[in-house]
């Protein structure tokens, strides 16, 4: 398994279906990626990496808290970053030319100290805020992805009904739930 450690909108390439029948998209910029099977690479997972606006909350909190605890970059952090890319694109793209919205809102994802960014994003990701403060900001073109985004949010942030930003021990359960949510959404789009 590979940890990318810098999932961002600029590191995801989507291809049209006419380009390849096997590949619909891929990740680039693997200079921070590590193989989990590599013992030396395990030490690298303790270094905070990533693009600020797409960085997982646990990594952000570990960058400014002086608790002495080391946050190892995990598979969950890459998925959370991918979730932020989905939100980012859905809020920033798909507007009529000259009618773009959410620039001030999205700038809070990368402007300020790590603590300020963490506190803003952490508040926005809470269940009481996710619908109104985040999903309702989707552009008309991406508004249909709100259901998927809400389910993806639930998979990443809810553990037994409680908001959770830590890493799971079972990556397969997280992966399988995420893939099932995307497969279901794709199926609904093609019907």
From TrEMBL:
Gene3D superfamilies: Transferase(Phosphotransferase) domain 1 (1.10.510.10)
Residue span, Protein kinase domain: 1-158
Gene Ontology terms, MF aspect: ATP binding; protein kinase activity
Protein name (record): Bgt-50863
Pfam families the record matches: Pkinase_fungal
């Amino acid at each position: 398994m590979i940890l990318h450690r810098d999932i961002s909108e600029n590191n995801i390439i989507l291809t049209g279906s006419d380009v390849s029948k096997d590949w619909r998209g891929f990740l680039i910029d693997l200079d921070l990626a590590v193989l989990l099977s590599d013992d030396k690479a395990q030490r690298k997972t303790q270094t905070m990496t990533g693009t600020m606006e797409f960085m997982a909350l646990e990594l952000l909190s570990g960058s400014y808290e002086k608790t002495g605890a080391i946050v190892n970059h995990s598979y969950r952090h890459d998925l959370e970053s991918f979730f932020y890319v989905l939100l980012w694109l859905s809020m920033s793209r798909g507007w009529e030319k000259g009618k773009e919205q959410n620039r001030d809102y999205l700038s809070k994802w990368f402007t300020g100290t790590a603590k300020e960014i963490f506190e803003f994003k952490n508040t926005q990701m809470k269940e009481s805020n996710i619908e109104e403060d985040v999903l309702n900001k989707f552009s008309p073109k991406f508004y249909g992805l709100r259901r998927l985004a809400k389910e993806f949010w639930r998979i990443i942030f809810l553990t037994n009904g409680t908001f959770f930003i830590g890493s799971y021990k079972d990556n397969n359960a997280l992966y399988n739930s995420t893939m099932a949510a995307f497969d279901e959404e794709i199926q609904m789009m093609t019907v």
